[in-house]
């Protein structure tokens, strides 16, 4: 009996740790508490996460990497296994700035899956400091008449010293019915630690010009996919 109680305690502690990391990995206390652009879109969130990372580059050199993100655009810069095994999609990320993906404005659609599935709409853009994405489409097709999800992804770049930038990312979400909260807090928030950390680090590596072997392999797969489409 003690063994089972101990195992339950370890599992509960592990979940609590993952949930806390998913809620605030990399963010300072000041970043957690302050207002961010886009907070007014989902004014009364039932769930919120805030993450941050310091990048040794000015905002104008980081911005092109952020604005070109998206499914089969520049990718999300996450680890390959995150896309393949966590989200079950093939979404290889680029290792370069793509000029034709830079023209984004309010109202632009940023896909997060195949056509007819999830996507974001650009709600606010202030180059090179603010990008706010909004979605009500991140619901499995078979459940769209039963549940709703309304959430924002807000990116903010603040230069803290010459050549040094703080990138902060905030999610604010509301949902219905109430049981969706169990999925959000039990699955989405803990997994957000893995996804968001890998994405922010992917942006950091690209902006600082120190791509990993994994980044280069992913970019190579991307070029193969594009060649097959063109061919």
Q: What is the average of the pLDDT values? A: 89
Strand order of the largest sheet: 1-6-5-4-3-2
CATH topology: Alpha-D-Glucose-1,6-Bisphosphate, Chain A, domain 4
The CATH architecture name reads: 2-Layer Sandwich
Task: Characterise this structure.
This protein is α+β, with helices and mostly antiparallel strands. The chain has one domain: START domain (Alpha-D-Glucose-1,6-Bisphosphate, Chain A, domain 4). The protein is 39% helix and 23% strand. Strands 1-6-5-4-3-2 form a six-stranded antiparallel sheet. Strand 5 (148-161) and strand 6 (164-176) form a beta hairpin. It is globular and about 55 Å long. The termini are far apart. 34% of the residues are buried.
């Amino acid at each position: 009996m003690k063994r089972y109680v101990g195992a339950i305690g370890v599992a509960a502690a592990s979940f609590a740790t993952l949930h806390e990391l998913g809620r605030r990995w990399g963010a300072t206390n000041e970043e957690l508490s302050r207002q961010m652009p886009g907070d007014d879109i989902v004014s009364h969130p039932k769930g919120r996460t805030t993450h941050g990372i310091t990048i040794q580059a000015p905002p104008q050199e980081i911005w092109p990497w952020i604005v070109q993100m998206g499914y089969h655009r520049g990718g999300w810069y996450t680890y390959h296994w995150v896309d393949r095994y966590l989200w079950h999609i093939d979404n290889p990320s680029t290792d370069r700035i793509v000029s034709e993906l830079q023209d984004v404005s309010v109202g632009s659609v940023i896909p997060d899956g195949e056509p007819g599935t999830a996507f974001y709409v650009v709600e606010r853009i202030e180059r090179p400091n603010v990008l706010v994405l909004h979605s009500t489409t991140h619901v499995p097709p078979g459940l769209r008449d039963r549940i709703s999800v309304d959430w924002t992804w807000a990116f903010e770049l603040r230069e803290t010293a010459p050549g040094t930038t703080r990138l902060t990312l905030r999610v604010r979400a509301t949902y219905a019915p109430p049981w969706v909260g169990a999925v959000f807090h039990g699955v989405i928030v803990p997994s957000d630690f893995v996804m968001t950390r890998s994405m922010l680090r992917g942006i950091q590596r690209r902006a600082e010009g120190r791509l990993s072997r994994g980044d280069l392999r992913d970019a190579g797969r991307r070029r193969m996919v594009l060649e097959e489409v063109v061919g």
